[in-house]
Amino acid sequence: MDYYLDTEFLEGTQKKLFGETKPTIDLISIGIVCEDGREYYAVSKDFNLKEAWNRYDIKIKQLYGDGRNIYPEGIKTKVYWIRENVLKPIWEDLSWRYINSHMFPDIHFQFSYQSLKELIQLYGETNKQIADDIERFVLVNYSGVIPIKFFSYFGDYDWVVFCWLFGKMIDLPKGFPMYCIDLKQTLDEKAENVNPLVFNTGYKSEFKPNFDNKSKWVKNHPNYPKQVNEHNALSDAKWNKELHNFLKTL
Question: Which of 74, 149, 227, 242 could be joined to 60 by an S-S link, Cβ 3.0–4.6 Å?
Answer without folding.
Answer: 74
